[in-house]
Amino acid sequence: MTLEELKKDKIAAMKAHEGDAVTAYNALISRLMLMATDPNHGRDITEADIVSAASKTEKELLEEQENFRKAGREETVAALEKQIETIRRYIPAMMSAEEIKTVILSLEDRSVPAVMKHFKANYAGKCDMKLVNETLRSL
User: Fold this and answer.
1) CATH of 3-88, one of 1.10.150.120, 1.10.1510.10, 1.10.287.70, 2.60.120.1440
2) Of 90, 94, 93, 121, the residue nearest 107 (C-alpha)
3) Domain regions of the chain by residue span
4) What is the pLDDT of residue 26?
């Protein structure tokens, strides 16, 4: 997945008159464009960056949805649900504890720093780093 593909998906949503999806794409693309202009980022947008931005956007939308639900604004809650569904298309399924354990056992160096570095480099956005740490410590 690239930023250009996201923009194409946004255009398709615009042509289909899916306003909530377009709003979700705008939020995600905006976050990625800010990341691209950040001097500390210093590289092109990668798939891991897209997954990270999608996860953050999903979290913000879920919090916003909960606040509107508390306020009794059900029409806004429904719109936010459509936005969340759109964003979730770009978040891969997270690795299970068993999958993480299999990867850890296949590594030669099973020290905490080496394992964490391996998962961050190879499975960014595809696993919960807290779960990796817990799984590693349970071995």
Assistant:
1) 1.10.1510.10
2) 121
3) 3-88, 97-138
4) 96
Q: What is the pLDDT of residue 14?
A: 97
Q: Is 43 left (phi over 0), alpha (psi -120 to 50) or beta?
A: beta
Rounded distance between C-alpha atoms, residue 118 and residue 32, angstroms: 25
- Which residues of the chain register pLDDT less than 70? 42
pLDDT tens track for 89-110: 998 888 899 999 999 999 999 8
Q: How far apart are CA 131 and CA 125, in angstroms?
A: 13
